[in-house]
Amino acid sequence: MSSHEQQAKTLIEALPYIQKFTGKTIVVKYGGNAMISDELRSAVMSDIVLLALVGIHVVVVHGGGPEISDMLKKLNHTSRFVDGLRYTDEVTMDVVQSVLCGKVNKNLVAQLNRLGGRAIGLCGIDGQLFQAEQLDEKYGLVGRVVGVDPEPVTNAMSSGYIPVVSTVAQGVDADRIYNVNADTAAAKLAVALNAEKLILLTDVRGLLRDPENEETLIRSVGALEIPQLISSGIVSGGMIPKLECCVDALNGGVGRIHLLDGRIPHSILIELLSNQGIGTMLHKEF
After folding, report:
1. Most buried of 14, 54, 58, 99 (most Cβ within 10 A)?
2. pTM score, two decimals?
3. 197 catalytic, yes or no?
4. What is the chain's percent helix, strand, coil content, to nearest 5?
5. Is 183 annotated in the active site?
């Protein structure tokens, strides 16, 4: 098959998926290596612009751990982690707010715009998009999302914009701003938007039966299987809270959740618009 025929085949293969998802909402949680590497970041942003141009409503929710750590280092302020979560004192919270809502958010907006998208930056405080209570004093100013008002996002989408959302939250238990987990925030927002899909870009191939062997990828998992995967130890560490928020999202009405390897260029397009499918898909039914 010639390269032209192959290109045509790829486009024809994408057509039914474009028809299926046009007008639907897809939430992409963006972080990890895909955020650090210029090449991977460009691929992710290109995927998002393409999806938006074919009529899919894409919402980007992002973290920015490495950027936050870099800025704290410049300030000679030590990053500390408790149970895998960044301990957030007042100085760290100032940096989180400045870096996430400022530098990282606006850089992503600028890149999407340069690639031909129409992006607009929002932070979780805007319009009280994310409302949170303190998770536990041992984590400092880390919040648990207790409410979502999706109106700032839906307004942006209805005006033709790609919303890019940073994960800080308005405190409802005190006059504070909280740092919130980006996976959880993305999952809660996906529920509030009645999203067709939630995509979590990770630094692994997906859910693995053996974390040391990428050939043991679990391609499809029902929500009811997840507690057993956790109790058996197949799922451990940082993947546990990730999957728990996925179960909540599925129970809240999100159609499908995909754990994708953000280290693979264009993993979003491969998953959504081809027969190939990569990563792990989580669904409600068996």
Report:
1. 58
2. 0.94
3. no
4. 45, 25, 30
5. yes
Active site residue 29: yes
What's the length of the chain? 286
Nearest to 182 by CA among 237, 146, 221, 145: 145
Question: Which one of the listed residues 140, 183, 197, 279 is annotated catalytic?
Answer: 183
Q: What is the pLDDT of residues 94-131, one digit of tens each?
A: 999 999 999 999 999 999 999 999 999 999 999 999 99
**Residue 265: pLDDT band by 50, 70, 90 thresholds?**
very high
Catalytic annotation present for 24: no
**Nearest residue to 86 via CA among 102, 71, 101:** 71
Tokens of 1: 């098959």
Rounded Cα gap, residues 24 and 195, in angstroms: 7
CB atoms within 10 A of CB 8: 12
pLDDT in tens, 43-75: 999 999 999 999 999 999 998 878 898 999 999
What CA–CA distance (Å, rounded) separates 165 from 48? 14
Q: 72-110 burial, b for 16+ CB within 10 Å, e for fewer?
A: beeeeeeeeeeeebbbbeeebbbbbbebbbeebbeebbe
Q: Contact at 8 Å (CB) between 146 and 108?
A: no
CA distance 92 to 281: 35
Whether residue 65 lies in the annotated active site: yes
Residue in the block written with tokens 């008002």? 149
Secondary structure letter of residue 126 according to DSSP: G
Of 31, 63, 64, 65, catalytic? 65
Active-site residue, from 47, 117, 188, 242: 242
